[in-house]
């Protein structure tokens, strides 16, 4: 694992820009040279050598040697732009490909236990007798030879033996035989990088759990002591959550900074990890196969001339469309329709809830609006209320970040305003 990561670390530092050019080269159409030219390029080194030696004994052969030099220069001029274009695409890939070849060798040399890893390793074998890692090293060597041909010394070799044209033809022959294998190799390496990323969580946090996948008809999302994976364990407050083969929309109310948004992110991130095959930050977890849809941190966009309210409408439309077409979808909504006035917000939110219930949607909505929580009275079989609250101790606020059943009754906005010297009407009356 460490060796594979170290090898790719050096490759990835320079590969981001160059890999795009490499794939552009691999996807480019091949220009097949004329048959006579391939024969001429193959034999010109020997022809030139014998002519040069022969001219020492037979001076008249100097004329043939001059003709060969002029003809070679003409050919090099015709292929010059094509050679430069190829070098601009892949000229800097030689060392990077060596690192990728080493990563492939590391995968191939490992004795894998899982069926998936064995199949991925099998995909790296390549075609023919040579291993794909060896073929990539040869490609790297051909690129180095092409780059060398553009130096001053290479200029002499081009006159004598059409060096760059020889390398260009060799590279294109390699491309014809191995381009699909190279593309597949990059896909396999990407898969191993993803698997290593997932396995690193288990290595670094062995106390996290692997979730069970629930195949029942309705939605299941059960977790004990689930916490946000990015909050250190010393500071993190864990919660339990239970949705057991049900169709429910949960409304979470609470004061500012009480933990509503963090809890939504906690469920979302851990569910995505669980469904990816990674461990989740929980004591135990059980989830259905489902997509996670988030409606959080919706913002306006000056570039797209989009207001906050318009951005929220677009996100709601995307949710409705996904519910129609994507099977099980679990949504996480943080403060719905905050971009409009309070009256429209409540009426709009109520309409959205009714639409979601009609579509048998399942998810969580966090809100400051207590009127939304009253929908539980109208839909007691479908809506559940939860809340995060605060405790007051000598005018000091204490947050326990624990999820509780019911509606929130304590809010802290007026107390926070008071701390900066702004008093509400009720506070003035009390004074």
Assess the beta-strand content as a share of residues.
Answer: 5-15%
Tell the overall outline: elongated
**What's the end-to-end separation, in Å?**
66 Å
Class computed from helices, strands and strand pairing? alpha/beta
> Could you tell me the mean pLDDT?
85
SSE layout:
Elements: H1 2-27, H2 35-57, H3 61-90, H4 94-108, H5 115-122, H6 132-148, H7 152-161, H8 163-204, E1 212-214, E2 219-226, E3 239-246, E4 249-254, H9 260-275, E5 284-288, E6 291-295, H10 308-325, E7 329-334, H11 342-358, E8 362-367, H12 370-373, H13 375-378, E9 383-388, E10 390-393, E11 396-399, E12 404-405, H14 413-419, H15 425-430
Overview of the structural elements:
The chain is of the alpha/beta class and 431 residues long. 56% of the residues lie in helices and 15% in strands. It contains 15 helices and 12 strands. The protein has helices at residues 2-27, 35-57, 61-90, 94-108, 115-122, 132-148, 152-161, 163-204, 260-275, 308-325, 342-358, 370-373, 375-378, 413-419, 425-430, and strands spanning 212-214, 219-226, 239-246, 249-254, 284-288, 291-295, 329-334, 362-367, 383-388, 390-393, 396-399, 404-405. The chain has a 6-stranded mixed β-sheet with strand order 6-7-8-4-9-12, with helices on both faces. It has a 4-stranded mixed β-sheet with strand order 1-5-2-3, covered by helices on one side. Helix 1 crosses helix 4. The longest helix has 42 residues, at 163-204. The two termini are 66 Å apart.
